[in-house]
C-alpha cells in the first residue's frame, strides 16, 4: 500500500505494510463496557501525529517496531476496552463489547528524510501529508466494524520516525487520549504507570428521570438561520488550512487590547485569542450584521463536578459551551465585548450544567439537530506532549491530522509552551482577509 503527499513541490511517498492486530498481552475482561452520554456526542476519530528524531546510537528498525508492538500489548491490559469494538444497543446508544480483538498496527517507510516534513506540514497541510502518516481503513467507514484505535509507525531515511495515532472519540477525548499515549510511552521505557486509568464511566450516568435546567442555546436553530448565505460568496473556492503563530508578545498585545477600555480586569490567553478569532472570522466571511453566529468550545469538567472525576479518568470529560452573538455587534464593539461573552460561557459550566448536558443527550440522542452558522474552538495548549517519550526523547513535532470543518484548533508552540499555534480553514478569499486581520 502506498500514499503520497506534497511538501514544497517534493513528493512524499510512503509505503505501508499490511496492518496487524495487537491484542492485550493477557486475556482481559469480556462482556459489555458502558459509555456515558458524553462519550456519544462525537463519534469520529481523534488523529494525532508525533515526529521523533533519530536516537543516537539507537537500535535498528526491527527494534523500533518491536518496542511499539510489545508495549502496546502490555498497556492494553490496563486499557482493555480499546481492544474491543463498538456496538449499537436497542436503545440507540453505543457501548463497547470487550472482544480482546486488539488495536490495529501498521509499519511504513517514507522515501525522504524527516527534515523534509517540517512543522508547516504538521499544521498547514493536514490532508496531503499528515494524512499519509496515519492508517485509515480503505473503503466506506463503518464505526461498528473499525478498531477503536490504530497506530502507524513511519520510518524516515537517515533515522527518525513518525507515530500516527487514531483514537475513537467514543473512547477518549483529547485529554484522555494524551494520557493513554503517556502511559504507552512509560510502558515502552519499562517504567511503571504514573497514573493508572480509571475505567468506570457510570459516574456520568444520566439522572432518572432526566432533569434539564439549561436552555442549551447552541441548538437554537431558529435564531441562527443562515441570513448571510455564507456559502454563496465563496462558492467553488478552494478551502485552505493555515497556521498562525501567536507568540508571547502577540498574546500580551491581545490581552492588553481586551482590557484597554476597562470593561474587563483580566483575561486568559484562551479567552482573548478565542474572542479575537471569533470577530476576525465574522469579518473574513463577510457576515451580514444581523447574522447570529455561534461560538462553541470545549470545557474540561473533570474538576467542576462534586466530587471531581478521579485522577486518570479515561473517557470523555468535556462538554460544549456556547456563545451566541450578532456579527455586527461583535465587529463594531471593542474586543472586550467578545472576551466577556467567552468568559461568561466558561463561567456557566458548573455541576448542574454538566448534569443537565448529560440528561439533555439522554432525551435527544435519537434526533438529528443541525448546527447553523457555528464554529468550534478546541484548545490542546495544555497537553503534556513532552510525556510522549517512547525512549527517543520527546517529540520534535506534534500535530492534529483531521481539523473538522468550521473549527479552530490551538496547539502549544515550543518547549516552553509560551506561544499558541492557531489553525483553521477558510475559503481562499476569506483566508486572505483573515491573514490581514492577524497582523497585530
Describe the structure.
This protein is an alpha+beta fold and 440 residues long. It is 24% helix and 26% strand. The protein has nine helices and 17 strands. The protein has helices spanning 61-75, 119-124, 174-188, 248-259, 269-284, 327-332, 335-347, 351-364, 428-437; strands at 2-7, 10-16, 20-22, 32-33, 45-52, 85-88, 94-97, 103-113, 149-157, 161-168, 239-246, 292-300, 318-326, 374-379, 397-400, 407-413, 419-427. Strands 1, 2, 3, 5, 8, 9, 10 and 15 form an eight-stranded mixed beta sheet that branches. The chain has a six-stranded mixed beta sheet with strand order 11-17-16-14-12-13. It has a three-stranded antiparallel beta sheet with strand order 4-7-6, with no helix packed on it. Strand 8, helix 2 (119-124) and strand 9 (149-157) form a beta-alpha-beta unit. The termini are far apart. The model is unreliable at 1-10 and 366-370 (pLDDT under 50). This is HXXXD-type acyl-transferase family protein. One of its GO terms (molecular function) is acyltransferase activity, transferring groups other than amino-acyl groups. Pfam families: Transferase. It comes from Populus tomentosa (Chinese white poplar). Belongs to the plant acyltransferase family.
Amino acid at each position: 500500500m502506498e500514499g503520497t503527499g506534497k511538501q514544497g513541490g517534493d513528493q512524499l511517498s510512503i509505503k505501508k505494510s499490511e496492518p496487524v492486530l495487537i491484542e492485550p498481552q493477557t486475556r482481559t475482561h469480556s462482556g459489555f463496557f458502558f459509555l456515558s452520554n458524553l462519550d456519544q456526542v462525537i463519534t469520529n476519530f481523534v488523529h494525532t501525529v508525533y515526529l521523533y528524531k533519530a536516537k543516537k546510537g539507537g537500535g535498528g528498525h526491527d527494534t523500533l517496531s518491536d518496542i511499539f508492538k510489545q508495549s502496546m500489548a502490555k498497556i492494553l491490559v490496563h486499557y482493555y476496552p480499546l481492544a474491543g469494538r463498538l456496538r449499537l444497543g436497542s436503545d440507540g446508544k453505543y457501548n463497547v463489547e470487550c472482544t480482546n480483538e486488539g488495536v490495529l498496527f501498521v509499519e511504513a517507510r517514507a522515501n525522504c528524510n524527516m527534515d523534509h516534513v517540517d512543522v508547516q506540514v504538521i499544521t498547514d497541510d493536514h490532508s496531503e501529508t499528515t494524512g499519509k502518516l496515519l492508517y485509515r481503513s480503505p473503503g466506506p467507514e463503518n464505526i461498528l466494524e473499525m478498531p477503536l484505535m490504530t497506530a502507524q509507525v513511519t520510518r524516515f531515511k537517515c533515522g527518525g520516525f513518525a507515530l500516527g495515532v487514531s483514537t475513537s472519540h467514543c473512547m477518549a477525548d483529547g485529554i484522555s487520549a494524551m494520557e493513554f499515549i503517556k502511559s504507552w510511552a512509560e510502558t515502552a521505557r519499562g517504567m511503571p504507570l504514573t497514573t493508572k486509568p480509571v475505567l468506570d464511566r457510570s459516574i456520568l450516568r444520566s439522572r432518572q428521570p432526566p432533569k434539564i435546567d439549561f436552555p442549551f442555546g447552541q441548538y437554537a436553530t431558529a435564531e441562527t438561520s443562515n441570513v448571510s448565505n455564507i456559502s454563496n460568496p465563496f462558492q467553488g473556492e478552494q478551502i485552505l488550512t493555515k497556521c498562525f503563530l501567536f507568540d508571547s508578545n502577540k498574546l500580551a498585545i491581545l490581552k492588553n487590547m481586551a482590557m484597554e477600555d476597562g470593561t474587563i480586569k483580566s483575561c486568559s490567553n484562551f479567552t482573548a485569542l478565542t474572542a479575537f478569532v471569533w470577530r476576525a472570522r465574522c469579518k473574513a466571511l463577510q457576515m451580514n450584521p444581523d447574522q447570529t453566529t455561534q461560538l462553541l468550545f470545549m470545557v474540561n469538567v473533570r474538576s467542576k463536578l462534586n466530587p471531581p472525576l478521579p485522577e486518570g479518568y479515561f473517557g470523555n470529560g468535556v462538554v460544549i459551551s456556547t456563545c451566541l452573538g450578532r456579527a455586527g455587534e461583535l465587529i463594531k464593539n471593542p474586543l472586550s465585548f467578545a472576551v466577556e461573552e467567552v468568559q461568561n460561557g466558561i463561567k456557566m459550566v458548573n455541576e448542574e450544567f454538566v448534569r443537565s448536558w448529560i440528561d439533555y443527550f439522554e432525551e435527544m440522542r435519537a434526533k438529528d439537530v443541525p448546527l447553523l452558522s457555528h464554529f468550534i474552538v478546541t484548545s490542546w495548549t495544555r497537553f503534556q506532549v513532552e510525556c510522549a517519550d517512547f525512549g527517543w526523547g520527546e517529540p520534535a513535532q506534534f500535530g492534529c491530522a483531521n481539523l473538522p470543518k468550521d473549527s479552530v484548533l490551538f496547539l502549544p508552540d515550543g518547549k516552553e509552551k509560551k506561544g499558541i499555534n492557531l489553525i483553521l480553514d477558510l475559503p481562499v478569499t476569506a483566508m486572505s482577509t483573515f491573514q490581514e486581520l492577524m497582523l497585530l
